Structure formats: structure tokens, C-alpha cells
Sequence to fold (538 residues):
Amino acid sequence: MSASFAKVEELSTRYPNSAGKVIGYGTAGFRDKASILDHVMFRVGILSALRSKQKNATIGVMITASHNPEDDNGVKLVDPEGEMLENAWEKIATKVANLDDSKLASAVEDVVKTTGIDLGVKGSIFVARDTRESSPRLTQAVLDGISCIDNCEVVNWDLASTPVLHYLVVCRNGNEAYGKCSKAGYYDKLSSGFLTSIGSKSAQGAYKPIITVDCANGIGAVEIREIGNKISNDLKLTLVNDGKPGILNHNCGADFVKVQQTFPENVTPAPGERFASLDGDADRLIYYYFDSNSKFKMLDGDKISLLFAEHLSELTKHANLQLKTGVVQTAYANGSSTNYAQDVLKIPVACEPTGVKHLHHAAQAFDIGVYFEANGHGTVLFSNNAIASVRDAVKSGDNKPAQELLSFMDIINSTVGDAISDLLGVEAILYSKGWSAQDWDNMYTDLPNRQLKVSVEDRNVIKTADAERKCVSPLGLQDKIDQLAGKYQNGRSFVRPSGTEDIVRVYAEANTQGNADALGKEVAAAVYELCRGVGPKP
Ligand code: G16
Fold:
């Protein structure tokens, strides 16, 4: 082995692989119980340094398990343009993370050779972490991993949300037009985009410039407080679940609200008020409100997506710009939202497998690509053509819709789904339309739906196709799902192995809540039977 990797061998003794299981780089990087991730973090640190040298650019390392419970943790690598790690490197990462300790140093040497890395290139790595108790310890493991590779510069941003880290990586890699490479630059960009967007006009119609934000007791509280201070004259943010003694993602946060379809703790519902929840690393956003019958109503990623798509396509039309707007969803998208986009807005809709990296890619096919998962994870991409056309239209004279488009673009963090940026985007649109949450909700009516989890011996026995809408293995499961869904009006259901938890997810929708619940339960029971369920039968 070359002397360059002696430190890998030396330091790896501090981080032995004692997980006792294979941990894969999934939908959102590595994710598992924090107690078994130290060696994974150490190895990811090494890989981030190599990836940076290979790309001759800054790479991000985000330590978080996002919406998962406090005891979990995880890590994802951010590629130079803010995108998720390239597929080929996901495979390398899984292989390296799971090797026996004795094989690590030679495997690292092998990666260098096979991927053509020049170790003489200076590496640059940005590291950030969420608020989990295990995150400082795991950050140290990442830093130790990076230190094994010579000639690397590291910036430890310490506490930062996932979208902030993506933003910083993009800015650092030369996209100065995008924003300043600092947390303050991020706060300034979003808040000034919002303030320019709403202009000097005061709030009108049914819109009230006040909102309660549930921060999931996570890092989002830190980031949104900074932004809230800058816009407090125009929008009052009341923060709840903003940290200790509250427990991260426990009975609160975007995932809790979306799946349980109810208010999080510490939120006092009142008709006419708007509420929003972020998730543990502030990359997802869900809105909700109490309707006039005191019923909980949710405005999820689909509703945010179509609010954005409608607004942006209207502005482009009024600005006289020939730009193609498109929407990208996943199988979780409510059937009513897809119909509304296609039939009412006449906007094309693409369907992709779960995981924002798939949606991000598909959204690049449009001038304005609005991509959201129903769970509230998403953003808007503007093509170079769209950016140039809007700028030209603004320069060439009195084109108010183009000006509005331009300031809206500044609010949007296109590098990745960003709950705070999306929240400001929603608020700017509601502000300009004079809409209440109810007005927004009136765009279309969601089909009732239900999500369930099933524990099975090995979730990977489930294989899917057609953007996860069909199950191709185990044999017979799809036929059973078709037969069950056929019993209910508007019945639709699909199953998929989770990429972030050791469970199978079941989605069901139908014409009534009772039918959606029944369909979900029946499909969950079929999964349990055909996939060797463990624990109590659903
Ligand atoms: C992560 C991904 C999301 C994806 C979610 C799915 O979310 O970033 O794009 O929707 O996982 O999780 P699962 O595969 O378990 O259904 P997050 O917010 O946890 O990073």
C-alpha cells in the first residue's frame, strides 16, 4: 500500500466497522441508528476528500437524518453544483462503508486508481450538521476521515440546515451570481427576494401577514429566526417547537403532520390562521389550517407545487415570455393534483421515483421546472434560457410581471428542496393574490388518502417499476393490489421499500377517507403476508 494511505489505516482503528449489517447509500445518503454510524462517517469523510479532488471543486458533507427520530442519524454528500451525489459514487460509497476494517486502506487506494484521481489536486470540503445529540460526535468522525487525505481544506460550518449547505457549496463553486458564500448571504438573498417580491404594497384581501411555524425542534428554527428578523415588518413568524426541551421530529414536524394528518403539538388551531411545519433539516414544508368547520386541512407538497406552477405560468404569460413550465411529481402525488395540473392549468406533468434527485433531473427538461414530492420536499428550477429571458424583459422596459418573476427567482433556493425558501415563496404568492389558506386550498380538492408502514424481514424483496407505481416482485403482490384497489371508487394504491427506514411504505387513496383507510389496511396486510411480515399484523 502506498504511504499516502497510511493514515487511513492508522485512524480507522478508532472507527471499527461493528455495525453487523450492510448499510446502503439510499434515497438520502446513509441513514441508520446513530450508534452504529461512526465508521460510516469516517469513511464518508475520506470519500468526500477524494470526490473533491476528482471534481476539483468543493464537496458538501451533511450530517443529518432529516425527518427520522432523534436516535437516528445519517450523512449525504453534496456534489459541486448542489446536486445529490452521482450514482456511480453512491455505489462506491456503499462498498467502502461496508468493508472489513482490514480492507479499507487498499480499497481507498483502489478508488483513487479506478476513478483517476490526482492526489496533487487540492481538496475542499464543506461540512455541516443538524441539531441531533449524536451529530457533533459524528462530525468529528467525518473530519478525521478527511484528515487522512493530504492537501485538503475543510470548512466546518457546524450547525446548518441541508439547504443552507447546498447553497454554500453552489456559491463556493463559482456561482457568484447565485449569492454570497456565507450563512448571512443566504439569509440576505431569501429575505431581500421576499421583500422585493411583495414590494411596498400592504397586505390585501383575505391574506393576513402572520403565520405560525412548527420547526420540528430542529435546525430550521435557527435559520428561520434569522430570516424572520429581517422581514418582521411585513410578515410575522411565530415559531413553535423551536428546540430543547422539545424532542426532534417527535409529535411535530412536516413528516408527522403529513402522515398523521393532524396538528403537531404546541400548535393551537384557530380558524382563519395559517400554520406550516418544517422537518428536522428544513428541507420539507407542509402547510395546514382549520377550516370554518374546525376541521384540519392540509396543504402539502402537491398544493405548494401547483400554487407555484400556476403563479409562474401566469406571470410568464403576462410578461409575454415563451417559457415552458412543467411539474414533476412522484407516485405519492394526489390524483386530484395531477388532474388539476394537466386538465385545468394545462401544464405537463412528469412522474419520477421517490427521491429529489430523480425529480430534480426531470425538472431540468423545462424552462421553469416545478418539482415537489407530496411530503413537501421540492423547489423550482429556472433554465439559463428562462433566467436570461426574464432579465432581458426587465431591462427592456416597463414589464411588471417580468420584474415579479425576477424577484420570485431570488426567493427560490434552486439547489435543493428548501422549506424556508418555499415558505417565503408561498407567502409572497398569497400576499400578491390576497388569498387565505382556504382560498389556496380551493384550487382543487384532494382525494382522501392514507399512508402506512409495514415491517418485513427484508424490505428489498419488494421491487418496483413505472416510477414505483407498479410492484414487480414478489410475484402476485401487484395483482392483489389491483384487485383491492378495484373494490373502491377512485381506488389507487402502491407499495415501495423505504430508502430511509427499515420498513415498507403503503400508500392508498380513494373517494372517501373510510375507503382510503380500508384500502391501505388491506394492502398492508397483503404486504405482510407476501413479504414475511414481522411484529404485529396490520
Ligand atoms: C428523503 C429524501 C426525499 C424522499 C424521502 C423518502 O427525505 O430526501 O426526497 O422523499 O427521503 O423517504 P423514504 O424512502 O423513507 O420514503 P428526507 O427529508 O428524510 O431527507
The chain has four domains: 5-159, 187-298, 301-442, 449-531. The radius of gyration is 23 Å.
